[in-house]
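Is nicotinamide-adenine-dinucleotide placement plausible here? Inputs below.
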Amino acid sequence: MSIVIVGTGYVGLTTGLVLGYLGHRVVCVDKDTAIIDKLERGISTIYEPGLEELLKNNGNVVIFTDNMLGFLPEADIVIIAVGTPSKSNGDTDLSFVEAVAREIGQALDPVCPPLIVNKSTVPIGTARRVETVIREELERRNVECNFNVASNPEFLREGAALHDTLYPDRIVVGADDVQALNLLRQMYAPILEQTFTPPQEVPRPEGYNLPALVTTSPTSAELIKYTANAFLAMKISFINEFAALAEKVGADINEVAKGIGLDKRIGPGFLKAGAGWGGSCFPKDVRSILFTGSQYNCELQLVQASLEVNWRQRMKVIEKLQQTLKVIRGSTIGILGLAFKQNTDDIRESPALDVIRELLDMGARVKVYDPVAMNKYRQTYPDQNITYCESAAGAAKESDALVVLTEWDEFRHLPWADLGTSMKTKIIIDGRNILNREELMSNGFTYSGIGR
Ligand SMILES: NC(=O)c1ccc[n+]([C@@H]2O[C@H](COP(=O)([O-])OP(=O)(O)OC[C@H]3O[C@@H](n4cnc5c(N)ncnc54)[C@H](O)[C@@H]3O)[C@@H](O)[C@H]2O)c1
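Reply from A.M.:
I modeled the complex. Tokens:
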């Protein structure tokens, strides 16, 4: 099939390369010419395990361009995968989605229109809104045309994006039209039936079951995405709430999480206590569904509470520094980890961002180290007065305390004895509960985790 994907970020690039790998003809479009220029040269614009290899072996199956117009007449499907950031009131900014819809409407071939697919995470009614915007443009051109808009939310996790795209738990397709449904079923057939040879760098997991195709109305598909993210965010906030209680009563939240996670009704995922959730999805999606709830006079109390608990977790890190170090003004704090989670360079709404801002406001000097996210952080916050270090040892040197904010594997195995000797005071706040408390304490550190 011939597929145009508009928006070549974490979702668009992964989807495009995977669909190309599966044998479709794919055109990845982005208005950012710097992104297109790099991708054309085989350089990945995001850090995502396995992606660069897939890009290098692409063999020009996937074309990268900043102008979709020439490719629209050929397309069977156009997938919209542009950003949907938050507005200040929590509502979703749909301007990027609408701009793409308008562009499609201005050029759509009325004889053989492609299926339009919303893959971006978008509020209820957006499939309909996209259709309206395209129709407005067709009317302006005085053109009549029957086309369909389907909703196909994306569930990939950054850091495991290729894996999740090739081996999903389910694929959700929301469409009112059978033909639209069939077209998407056909596009996903190699994944639904697992007929492809797995790429070397992303093997098929042992015991993997064929994914379910969940077909729904567009509205249900839109709501499924928000419900999933709100639930996962709530699960993390839930364990964080109990982490606070575990600290008070002298329990270890890691043990508690293990004890409840083995219950099949609960499951072990998303039960890691720490500095809270961040990233490009949970925060904005939680705010967006709260906004939708308020529009319909339907208060989502659990979701609201999850957001509040999450902010409390950020501040918990600062409180712990105050408890151990006492005075923050004038102290030097080393931060280990800027990315919102491991295996990604995505720093959007990461815990590190809030903690660093707070520390700078309080008059601390901040040194940071992250294995992959430092360039992105530097480019995004060029005015922040922080010191970038080449290694964890650099961040530890002369610091009064170290704070772990991303669960990078590298941080689990640091030479703590050496790091400790170079610090002014051996204080460590383990904001991800990934370190070996006993090892640190035996090396003379004052250790403080979350809920343990
Ligand atoms: N990142 C994730 O893990 C993830 C997972 C599931 C769903 N989503 C959703 O998918 C959508 C995309 O997320 P992302 O993380 O890939 O975003 P991103 O910011 O990484 O990429 C979006 C891209 O769209 C491009 N773009 C914007 N307007 C354009 C236009 N008019 N024409 C062409 N390109 C345009 C931007 O230049 C950018 O490169 C969002 O709605 C997000 O909520 C993201």
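Short version: The first strand starts at residue 2 and ends at 6.
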